[in-house]
Amino acid sequence: MPGVSTVEVILRDDRTPVVRVWTDGTRGDAEIQNDVADVIAIHGFGSGSADRAAEAVRDRIDHELDSSLPGGTEPEPAVGLAKLIIEENGEEVLAVASDVSGRSASAHVGEGADAFLIAVTDAVSALRGVTPTPLLVSVEDRFVAGVDVVSVLIETGVGERFAGAAVVRGGRPFSVGRAVDAALANSA
């Protein structure tokens, strides 16, 4: 979804979703809240008509947002992968990841079939300041509810594994980078 860098959805025992959304600053919070509520209602959460379900979910999102922020403070913005560039000159190939504030980090693209995706993982990890760089364990592409989704599994230097996913937009390396960014957010 445009404007969203990471989403966490937890289902309560009564199957009521609790949604936490980290934005990248490119769209307004109210607009994103409406889009998230609509997606949740479309997937059948809530009761009654889709409009009533969407309104109920919006209220829950507002309540969860208000109750999760002590003293009404704003959450720290997520790094959020905004741009991925593959740079090549006669001597090397680099994956350069940039966030919405313009900060960037790069990683050397090595040899092998997965070299681009490994470099993207390294660049996104460096952008987030994660050391040591996690290992990219797997990348999986799926078609879910009419949408192409890429999911990744990463392993940290201490052996913990985290997953992240992203809707495929643009090139596959960018979508993998967004999924890695989501996995890193889950590891924090």
Explain this structure to me?
With 188 residues, the protein is of the alpha+beta class. It contains four helices and eight strands; from the N terminus they run E-E-H-H-E-E-E-H-E-E-E-H. The strands form three sheets. It has a three-stranded antiparallel sheet. It has a three-stranded antiparallel sheet with strand order 6-7-8. Strands 1-2 form a two-stranded antiparallel sheet. Helix 1 (29-42) packs across helix 2 (50-68) and helix 3 (115-128) packs across helix 4 (172-187). 31% of the residues are buried. Residues 46-50 and 63-78 have low confidence and may be disordered.
Low-confidence stretches: 46-50, 63-78
CATH names the topology of the largest domain as Double Stranded RNA Binding Domain
Q: What is the total number of structural domains?
A: 2
Overall number of strands: 8
Shape: globular
Major β-sheet, in short?
Answer: 3 strands, antiparallel
The helix/strand class is alpha+beta
**End-to-end distance:** 22 Å
Round the Cα radius of gyration to an integer and report it: 18 Å
